[in-house]
Amino acid sequence: MSAVHDKISNDTSLSSVLRQLPRNLWSSVFRHPLPSSELGQAQTSFSNFFLHIHPVKVNRHTLKPTYTLGLGLMSFFLFVILTVTGVLLMFYYVPSTDQAYDRMLDLRGSVAFGTFLRNMHRWAAHGMVIVVFLHMCRVFFTGSYKKPREFNWVIGVLLLLLTLFSSFTGYLLPWDQLAFWAITVGATIATYAPFIGQKIQFLLLGDNVVGQEALLRFYVLHVVVLPLLMSLLIAIHFWRIRKDGGLSRPPEAEVAPGASEIAVKLVSPPAGKQSFGFMGLVRGPFVKVGNVPDNTVFSWPHLLTAELFVFVITLAAVLVVSLLFHAPLEEPVNALHPPNPAKAPWYFLGLQELVSYSAFWGGVGIPALEVLLLLLVPYLDRSPHGVGRWFAKERLLANTLFLTFALFNVGLIVIGTLFRGPNWEFVTPW
Amino acid sequence: MKESKEVPRRSLLTWVSSVALFGSAVISALANFVFLKPRATYGAPSRFSIGRPEEFPPGSRIAIEQRRICVAREGNQVAVISTTCTHLGCIVAVSDTGFSCPCHGSRYDQDGNVTGGPAPKPLPWYQVKLAPNGELEVDTSVEIKPGTYYTV
After folding, report:
1. For the segment B93-136, what is each residue's pLDDT rounded down to a tens digit?
2. Nearest to A188 among B37, B42, B88 (CB)
3. I need a labelling partner for A299 at 20 to 30 A (CA). Which of A104, A156, A341, B117 fits?
């Protein structure tokens, strides 16, 4: 095989070079042919830029759809869909109070696929807020934030906040009544923070009221600052998954069912004589010395097909919803006539509901406390038990507390969205 | 013995230079917020003229929606009250009893004190003065004590 290869590459006559051109081009891009052996499967994951983020082998438990529900991947794919549709929409959008609304009408009227792309962007954004939240619930209810994954939970919480803020900044861009008053209300909630609230609002809006400056600032945050920050944190989030030993799983998932355990005796070398290969420095269970019976399969093709499946499902869902429902567009901004009731974006309606009881607690106290508690979750719950199983018995208390927290927030949002009518009075949606 | 209590020169230098480097990084980062805080706003100016006092007859309460203010005059006393709801920033409407917010139902009396709804604090009063040209000039960046009238 290699002899043939050498012979070909040594023949430098023009006809031979041209004849070999397609093959040489292909093999210079893809170092390995489609894998037909286990070595090939390993090499493919290892040497391809887009695949090297994967481990060569992955635990069977990780691939169980009922364990992760694919929610983390779904969040990521929604982010990708949002990036692509967002960049396309940028080609036709102008962040100016004179033009923004007209550009929305242009998307509808004169841009090919304009309505459809806007629908996709809008519904994927709402979907991402929901899916990221559900992903957080999955991680909590399976105890996956525990050691050594504490910091990845923290990054996840930051990503949730960035998702909310991205969605919030995007909400203003159509410059219609819905956008203007939702942001007016949302930005005023920020002013309830003591001492700095007013300053934060001024810095965010670039003025005392929502206007041209606010539109430009929200645009820059929405299309550059927040996506860059999120990309960085997503990269760290993924990196940490690998470095923390892959997805969480119960201890019994480490060994294949039926395999007998082989005791591996570790002998410490005498002091001054330690020597390590690179592999010896890598944490986590993927580096095996010898033939320890494990419960892993090759990432190519098992993990890849699972990822492809989640991607297709996610994209299909966004496409179907975008075909069936149009993204809302109300009348252009009229700064003198607020709608009744004026509502913030739905994911902030829980806060708005709280603000209607107590300005400080709704606007600052409770949200700050909630974010702080979320960030501290893995540092408050130090019990190592119940990792890798849904609703583990040992975690009854923690799970109950978190379920209460989740239902409290969802309940407030449902009340604020469906049960509040003109003058913020109680109404029934039916 | 004496030597061990002294901070070695090398680690002292390390500390000083680290603090200097890190400090300048922090200050540079904070300087961005100075940049981001606008010195001049391009929107509505905070100080503007609303016309001659005769345009506001005694006993009238006239809302100027574009400026988000209400001019109240009693006898020869003039006051300017904000019409931006202190709850969530909507524009309150002038009603017989005072002000009412269409967004979330906050109600205020004629002096801007909260009489109902979720509003957390009364409507602010703004400074108003007669300018040299004989027109009333309002400064919405200066809040004054509610109940303080300006005599024209």
Report:
1. 888 889 988 877 888 999 999 998 888 889 999 999 999 998 99
2. B88
3. A156
